[in-house]
Amino acid sequence: MTEPDDVDLNRVWTNLAAEVWRRHPGRLERTAARLLRSPGLARALLTTPSLLVPWLVSTVVVFGAGALLRLGPGQPVVWLLAPALAAVGIAYAYGPGVDPAWELSYSMAVSERMILLTRALAVFAVNAVLGLAASAASGAVASLTFGWLLPMTAICGVTLAVAVAARSATVGAAAGVAAWVITVLANQTASGQLTATVTDTETYLPYVAAAACAAVAVAFLTRPQRGLQ
Amino acid sequence: MNVELTDLTRNFGRHPAVAGVTLTLGPGVHGLLGPNGAGKTSLLRMLATVLPPSSGQLRLLDRDPKSPAARREIRRRLGYLPQNLGYYPAFTVVEFIEYFALLKEMPSARIPKAVATAVERVDLGVKAKARLRTLSGGMLRRVGIAQAIVNDPQLLLLDEPTAGLDPEQRVAFRALLRDLGERATVIVSTHLVEDVGAACSEVALMDAGQIVFRGTPDELTVRGQDHGVGDAPLERGYSAVLAAARS
C-alpha cells in the first residue's frame, strides 16, 4: 500500500495521541471551572490535599464520633471539634511541604493567591457543611448546632495567617488548635461553662475582630510583590 | 531582548546569593555554569518570577514583572523546570503536563494537542498513561521538561535539566534544546560543561553571585589553554576562569 507524499505522519500521530490521551474532566471539575471562570483554578482546587478522599473520610469519621460523644446532657463534642478540624484542613490546603509542586505552581499564570484563597474557602465550606450535618444529627440545641460557626471562622483565619507567615502548615495548624484550646479554656474559667465559647453572645465581636484581622494579615502576606522567600 | 537584568541583587539575610548581575539575553540557548552556591538557582528563580530581587532592575519579555498584570503575561509565556521538581504521585504523565498547561492559562481547546506534542518531544509516549510514582528519576525529569515546554514558551528556564538522564537521552535533549533555542530564549543552569559545549550558543559563568565570564563555549575553551586542571578543553576553561576570578 502506498501513502500520499504530503501526509505528515508525525502530525497524524500527535493528533491521534491527543484524542486518545485526552482527559475528560468530571462534573465537579466542569462546574468548578464554570463558577471560578478558570479551568486551571478548578483543577488546582480538586488537587487540594485536605479535600482528597482519605482526608475527607477521616473528617467524616471524626465529626461522626463528635456527634456521638457527649460532654454532658445535650452537649455533643462536635462543636468543640469543628473549628479545630477546619483549621487543620485549611493549614494543609496549600503551601510548601504540603503541595508537592508548590514552587512550580508559583511560576504559573493562575495566581498563587487565588489558589490559596479558593482552596481555603472550599475547605472551610466542606468542614462547615459536615460539621453542621453532624451537629444537627446529634440533636444539640440550636446555640450549640450553629454557635461554633463564628469561632470557626476566626480560628481558620488565624491558622491561615500563621501558616502563610511561617510558610509552614504544621506551625499554622498548631497555632490554630492552640488558639482554639486557649479560647475554650479561658471562657470556661471566666464563666464556669465549657460551652460558653460558642453560646455567649458577648464573644461574637472578638471573633469577628479576630477574623477581620486575620483576613487583613493574609491579604498583606500574600500581596503579589512578595514572592517566595 | 527577552531578558534584561540591571545590577540585580538577591540577599538571604546578610548573604548575597546574587550580587549585582547585569545581563541581556535574546533568543538562543544560553548556558549558566558555576560551582555549587554560585547563585545560579537564585538567579533562575528570579527569572521565573518566584523570587523577588532585593534590588536592581528585571525585565522579561519586554515587561516589568513587578506589575501583576505584566507578571501574568510573562508567566503565560514562560517555561520553568525547578531544580527539585515536586510532583503528584497519583497523576499520570499526561495529567501532570495538562495540569500545568491549565495553570499557564492555555486555551482549553489547544491543550490536548500541546500535551501530546510535549510528551512526544521528550519521548515519553509509551509512558503517557503511567502514574508518576512508577517512573524512574530520568523519566520524571523528562516529565518536568515536558511541562516546561508545553506552552511553547518564549522564555525557557531549566535548572539542572539533564540530572538523571542517561547519555542517549542527554544527546536527544541537547537536540531539543537547539531546536527550542531557534525561537525562544533558553537558559540552562548546569554543572555539566559538556551540555554547554554541545547545546549552548553562549555561556555565562557565575561565582559568588557574580557573572565572571560571558562568551561562547569556544571562547571559554580558549581561556583554558595552558591551564592544567580539567579533563576536557571546556573544563580547563571553566577552571581557569574560576581560578582567575578568585585570585
Topology:
The complex is a heterodimer of chains A (229) and B (247).
Chain A: H1 9-21, H2 27-36, H3 39-46, H4 53-68, E1 70-72, E2 75-76, H5 78-91, H6 102-106, H7 112-138, H8 142-146, H9 149-166, H10 169-191, H11 196-199, H12 204-221
Chain B: E1 3-12, E2 15-25, E3 28-33, H1 40-47, E4 55-60, H2 68-76, E5 78-81, H3 93-103, H4 111-121, H5 137-149, E6 155-159, H6 167-181, E7 185-189, H7 193-199, E8 202-207, E9 210-215, H8 217-223, H9 233-246
Parallel strand pairs in B: 3-7, 3-8, 5-6, 6-7
Antiparallel strand pairs in B: 1-2, 1-4, 8-9
What are its keywords?
heterodimer, A: 229 residues, mainly alpha, two-stranded antiparallel sheet, 12 helices, 2 strands, 70% helix, elongated, B: 247 residues, alpha/beta, six-stranded mixed β-sheet, three-stranded antiparallel β-sheet, 9 strands, globular
Question: How would you explain this protein's 3D organization?
Answer:
The complex is a heterodimer of chains A (229) and B (247). Chain A has 229 residues and is an all-alpha fold. Chain A is built from 12 helices and 2 strands, in the order H-H-H-H-E-E-H-H-H-H-H-H-H-H. A two-stranded antiparallel sheet of chain A has the order 1-2. In chain A, a hairpin with a 2-residue loop joins strand 1 and strand 2. Chain A is elongated. Chain A starts with 8 loop residues before the first helix and ends in an 8-residue tail after the last helix. With 247 residues, chain B is α/β, with parallel strands linked by helices. Chain B starts with a strand and ends with a helix. The chains are: A mainly alpha (229), B alpha/beta (247).
Oligomeric nature of the chains: heterodimer
Extended strand count of chain B: 9
Number of helices of chain A: 12
Strand order of the largest sheet of chain A: 1-2
Shape call of chain A: elongated
The amount of beta strand of chain B, in percent, is 15-25%
Shape of chain B: globular
H and E order of chain B: EEEHEHEHHHEHEHEEHH
